[in-house]
């Protein structure tokens, strides 16, 4: 059976990434329960919104960035339609820099830069926002309390831990950067 675009539900994630999940895996019901409903994609006017060209990310000091991810509402659909809640990056010290897609990091060959990544996915009470998808805490990385020596292991105190309620785990990946493996945003970071 050939699948079409209507057979998938799109879940947008931070910094321009998205996940397309087949509706055949029980997601039809979940998609129908999206708060506020869903849009009929065939009814949206196409090519109405000007393409965003990301400016340079503001620095805190030369060649040092403090970049946070936050949740905010942004006009992504054509004008007149509601804003979209997105997770996007920006300078922690420049609130107006948060955008989806995010700003570009400028670097010069043979001049290293440093980036401090900040998880700012918090509500008004400074509590971490819940993940958009269920997180299986028995997978690889999902034992943060295990520390470096106990990572990639299931906790010994329970056979299967309860639902993950910690901060949304984030692993930024920078396209075009020349970095070593541990800084390249691989899924097990």
What class, by secondary structure content? mainly beta
H and E string: EEHEEEH
In total, the number of domains comes to 1
CATH class: Mainly Beta
Major sheet characteristics: 3 strands, mixed
How would you state the average pLDDT, rounded? 75
CATH architect. name: Sandwich
Poorly predicted ranges: 5-31
Strand order of the largest sheet: 4-3-5
The tally of beta strands, per DSSP, is 5
Shape: globular
Count of alpha/pi helices:
2
How many whole angstroms does the radius of gyration measure? 19 Å
Span of the ends, CA to CA: 37 Å
Overview of this structure, please?
With 189 residues, the protein is mainly beta. The protein has a single domain, classed as Immunoglobulin-like. It is 5% helix and 19% strand. The chain has two helices and five strands. The chain has helices spanning 27-32, 147-150, and strands spanning 8-12, 18-22, 64-74, 84-91, 114-119. The strands form two sheets. Strands 4-3-5 form a three-stranded mixed β-sheet, with no helix packed on it. It starts with 7 loop residues before the first strand and ends in a 39-residue tail after the last helix. 8% of the residues are buried. Residues 5-31 have low confidence and may be disordered.
How is this fold's topology laid out?
Blueprint: E1 8-12, E2 18-22, H1 27-32, E3 64-74, E4 84-91, E5 114-119, H2 147-150
Quick gist of this model?
With 189 residues, the chain is mostly beta strands. The chain contains 2 helices and 5 strands. The strands form 2 sheets. Strands 4-3-5 form a 3-stranded mixed sheet, with no helix packed on it.
